[in-house]
Design brief:
The protein contains 4 helices and no strands. It is mainly alpha-helical. The protein has one domain. Helix 2 (12-36) packs antiparallel against helix 3. It has helices at 5-8, 12-36, 40-66, 77-95. Helices cover 78% and strands 0% of the residues.
Amino acid sequence: MKTAKSDTQLNEKDAILDMLESEKQLTSFYAIALCEGNAKSVRKEFAANLNSVAENQYCLYNQMSSRGYYTPAPAQKQMIDQINETFKKQQKQLAN
C-alpha cells in the first residue's frame, strides 16, 4: 500500500504537542541530573539547562493554548482542599 504525503506529515497540533512532550521529558531528565550531580559547576549547568527547557515548555504550552489545542480543566476547590489536606498529613508524619 502506498501512503500519500499527507499521511506521513504531522499537522500543526501534533507537531507542537510532540515538541511539548519532548520538553517535558527533558525537564524531567535535567531535574534528575541536577539532583544527582555532585560538582558545583555541573549542577550550575544542569540548573541553567533546566530553566531553559522549562521556559521552552511554557512557550510551547502558550502556543497550544492560544490555538485552542490545549485547554486544561480548572481544578475544583474540593480537589484542591483534599490535596492540601493530604499534604499536611504527610508533613506531620515526616515531622514525627
